[in-house]
Input
Amino acid sequence: MKVSAEITGTKELSRQLVALPDMAKQLVVTGVSLTGEELRNYMIELITKGPRSGVLYVRGGVSHRASASGEPPKKDTGQLDNSIFHRQINAGMGLEVGSNLKKAGYLEDGTKHMDKRPFIRPAAKRFKPVFIARLKAALEAAKKAIS
Output
């Protein structure tokens, strides 16, 4: 089970990007790639360093503070943060970020036994303005480069 979020530009921006020559599109693809790396790193930071106010428990002699309802999940085994991926979609002009772990979906959306611990969609929502701004800047740079 994969849980992910996609970030793409506006329809008008996407139409302009598709019309660019291949050389100019590379500027856009580079900006998308950079945003993907930053978004992935931010998601990992939410899991590994985010605030925690959940239950404190001891397992195997080690104390662990869990995340509370609504907080990003807390790193425990490292499996979740190591599963975070990003990939470019739409010919390199859009992003998909997420995890292929089944438990990532349970954490993101909650279950009948556990409240949500969202980290994918909030991170994508936070980075969408950055993504759009980068696409616009790359489009302007590309237009200047081909003028």
Summary: The two ends are 46 Å apart (CA to CA). The chain has one domain: 3-146. The chain has a mean pLDDT of 88.
